[in-house]
Amino acid sequence: IAGITQAPTSQILAAGRRMTLRCTQDMRHNAMYWYRQDLGLGLRLIHYSNTAGTTGKGEVPDGYSVSRANTDDFPLTLASAVPSQTSVYFCASSSDGDYNEQFFGPGTRLTVL
Amino acid sequence: GQNIDQPTEMTATEGAIVQINCTYQTSGFNGLFWYQQHAGEAPTFLSYNVLDGLEEKGRFSSFLSRSKGYSYLLLKELQMKDSASYLCAVRDSNYQLIWGAGTKLIIKP
Lengths: 113, 109
Prior knowledge:
The complex is a heterodimer. By secondary structure, chain A is mainly β. Chain A has strands spanning 4-7, 10-13, 19-25, 31-37, 44-49, 56-57, 64-66, 76-78, 87-94, 102-104, 108-112. In chain A, strand 9 and strand 10 form a beta hairpin. The model of chain A has no long low-confidence stretch (mean pLDDT 94). Chain B is mainly beta.
């Protein structure tokens, strides 16, 4: 693995189903993030984790949950998917350098019907 | 509320110069980032400003004025591969990034 990986790449899901989006990074970054990106809107933060064992709510957390059992993995779960959760989901992690810039995974395109 | 404004779309000619503006109103300021995002891909980091002034990195430069809540990204010697969306993001007092909707830059030959 080099950087951040996300799975699946894309998914079509029936409304009401449970879905977990996976995110793994191998850069040993402490902070990780989940965003959704919708046409005409900026990236919106769903949940974040500053370090393993801790999580926090972002701008749009409703309907989503996360866990951070270890440094590398940060899964995002939709307990009961709704059509408004149709979006592209990006996982990101922060470096510990001066910039603390965020590195992004390739994204998961999710369609809820 | 927090707000980041960027033009929705801009068009420029290959070999020319283009300036993409970003204005912001956020609760606190701990740096401003520019990211590039090609269609269907993830955003990638371009530049970071935390102090007023110009930061130059090759063909790309980024400027910040904290007193005006204003930044711009300057792209010189435009190439076709620069066709992408450019995202402005401000790190607020909670050290979270607030993102603009992005500016889609179209480069014409």
